[in-house]
Inverse folding.
């Protein structure tokens, strides 16, 4: 298994280290990190080859607002490495096991939403999520026959809907309304 | 060069194909410091990213750095 990995700590670790050291220093973020081989709590959902794990006083800042800063650093690092988008699940940034707990949370949310859609015979609409999180919902409901999951709308408002079998996919909420609620949540 | 200007320049240079054509100008306002980023026309997509995600990530990082420095930073990518 380890032998056919595309990304290895030995090859991308040093480049990630140089890039992040500089970025964290200039942004005055008090964080340290280690680049380690991926572990596999849910290999059927996410099977990262390399994990970058952060610690330090600014971990809280990293995880604020649905881990916005953690995901921003992850995205910039992937772009720096020129990783094609189909490889993005092979590198994972984490702190305080946020990503693993988030997968668990999304799996539970998917199951609860599926039950509700079946019980009420009405589609259930999730809040907008990143593609990586939408994928987790779809994978969690892969085996269900009483409901199907679909992504609707345009990024960054793209959202998952859970639809009872045989029912049409609901229309996208008006973008004006959703961008307004997005703005309302910002500080 | 300020640390923030260096930050934007270093990230941009890591993302583009022609790092020699990256330049960042810092314009200090009363409340906000504007960081004007210029890259080669062929590299614009690299610093903006799909659906603007790369530019958004840089802005998120500037927001966090701004909290540390008690200053607001705005990124403008100039075409």
């Amino acid at each position: 298994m380890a032998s056919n990995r595309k990304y290895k700590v030995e090859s991308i670790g040093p480049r990630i280290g140089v890039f992040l050291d500089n970025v964290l220093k200039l942004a005055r973020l008090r964080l340290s990190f280690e680049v380690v081989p991926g572990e596999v709590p849910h290999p059927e959902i996410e099977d990262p080859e390399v994990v970058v794990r952060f610690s330090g006083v600014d971990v809280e800042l990293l995880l604020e607002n649905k881990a916005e800063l953690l995901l921003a650093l992850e995205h910039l690092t992937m772009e720096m490495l020129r990783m094609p988008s189909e490889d993005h699940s092979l590198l994972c940034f984490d702190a305080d096991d946020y990503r693993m707990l988030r997968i668990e949370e999304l799996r539970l949310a998917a199951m609860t939403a599926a039950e509700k859609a079946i019980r009420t015979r009405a589609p259930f609409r999730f809040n907008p999520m990143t593609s990586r999180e939408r994928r987790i919902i779809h994978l969690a409901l892969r085996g269900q026959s009483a409901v199907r999951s679909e992504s609707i709308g345009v990024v960054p408002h793209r959202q998952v809907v859970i639809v009872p079998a045989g029912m049409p996919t609901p229309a996208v909420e008006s973008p004006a309304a959703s961008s307004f609620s997005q703005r309302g949540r910002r500080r | 060069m300020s640390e923030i200007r260096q930050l934007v320049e270093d990230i941009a240079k890591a993302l583009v194909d022609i790092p020699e054509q990256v330049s960042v100008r810092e314009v200090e306002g009363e409340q906000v410091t504007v960081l004007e980023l210029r890259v080669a026309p062929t590299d614009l997509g690299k610093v903006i990213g799909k659906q603007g995600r790369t530019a958004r990530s840089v802005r998120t990082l500037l927001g966090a750095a701004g909290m540390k420095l008690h200053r607001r930073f705005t990124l403008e990518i100039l075409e």
Observations:
- Chain B has three helices and three strands.
